[in-house]
Amino acid sequence: MAETTYPSQGFNTVNRYKHQATYDVETIHTIVNTTPVLHVSFVPDPSIPAPIVLPMIGQMGLSPTDQAAGSEDWKCYLHGYVSSRLMRLADDAVKRGEQGLPLCVAATKVDGFVLTLTPNSHNYNYRSAVLQGFATIVEDTAEKIWAMELITNAVVPDRYANTRVPPDGAEMQSTRILKMKITGASGKVREGVPEDERKDMKREDVLDSVWTGVIPVYEKLGEPQPGPYNRVKEVPEHVRKFVDGENERREKYAFEAAHKPAPLKRPAKKEEGV
Fold first, then answer.
1. Angle, vertex CA 15, rays to CA 14 and CA 19, nearest 5
2. Where are the transmembrane segments (predicted)?
3. Whether this model's pTM surpasses 0.85
């Protein structure tokens, strides 16, 4: 999208802890694109009151087709199987003349456990994003292959080119790609040290007896393990580079977030007579 922020439209407006809200396009896209598993919600049938939530692999991207058409609207591409219920519902929605299947996509990353003086003020350092929109099936072959490459490289950068490609006919037939046009998006980010109520900060007995701080949290990638039929002696450079670089980046972010100022200082209460 051309704008640098998603508009706040009511349905995507953050109401709780507004000071931690973000509508920044780059921030939201980065959260989505660095989250290995996205949670996709949809209502399968009006007669079923509860929505279905599926863990899926996906990425935000701007396809060459859209770029050529002059569009700057990034879409969320989701990888799935041809006969899955989600794909059938998206196909049926288009056949009914609708703009697509309504979806909600959520991504969350935990960066630290924030331990405070009281249980009530414990917190997480975290990053989260929520997307709303309408999904349709990618029918164009070139865009489909582009999306498959995009999603594969989200697992490990440059992985697509370092495999047996292009996908054969059976693989293309069994794989479906959904693309969701974004109608609204928002994010929330909490970074920083613990924060407690003034009433507890004034109690020397509590300060002297309760440990406070942040436990940094980050996923660590392990040493690559060869598969049972692997014949390549050395771990490929693109895999080694990804593991080493990603571990360093994740650890650095979590520790830096643990030392940043708290996101909001609670306003001081007025003293009596002031």
1. 75
2. none
3. yes
